[in-house]
Amino acid sequence: MSQFNDVSVTREANIYFDGKVTSRAVHFPDGTTKTLGIMLPGDYEFGTEAKELMEILSGDLEIQLVGEDWRKISAGESFEVPANSSFKLKITEVTDYCCSYLTQD
């Protein structure tokens, strides 16, 4: 899906790592939220509260989930991160992403 309809967007940006990672929250009528953002090259670590689905729209990166080896992710691919966890990223080029916050199964 390249466009979201009938949503509201939080005007203020989420800014992390001295502005190297930014996003905006998109709120859907069913109560779900996604963030759309950009990550500049660098190494980052994030924590999660909810389960997340990270869709990489453009760019290349490496990810390491807790207890796993590093793996490469490219544009068009995605990965899930469990709730109450963390993950490390090595961003190798400007990366555009969509993060969906998933309900627990």
From TrEMBL:
InterPro entries: Ppnp, RmlC-like_jellyroll, RmlC_Cupin_sf. GO terms for molecular function: guanosine phosphorylase activity; purine-nucleoside phosphorylase activity; thymidine phosphorylase activity; uridine phosphorylase activity. One of its GO terms (cellular component) is cytosol. Keywords: Glycosyltransferase, Transferase. It is an enzyme of class 2 (transferase). It catalyses: guanosine + phosphate = alpha-D-ribose 1-phosphate + guanine; uridine + phosphate = alpha-D-ribose 1-phosphate + uracil; adenosine + phosphate = alpha-D-ribose 1-phosphate + adenine; xanthosine + phosphate = alpha-D-ribose 1-phosphate + xanthine. The keyword Transcription regulation does not apply. CDD domains: cupin_PpnP-like. Its EC number is 2.4.2.1, 2.4.2.2. Belongs to the nucleoside phosphorylase PpnP family. Catalyzes the phosphorolysis of diverse nucleosides, yielding D-ribose 1-phosphate and the respective free bases. Can use uridine, adenosine, guanosine, cytidine, thymidine, inosine and xanthosine as substrates. Also catalyzes the reverse reactions. This is Pyrimidine/purine nucleoside phosphorylase. It comes from Parahaliea maris.
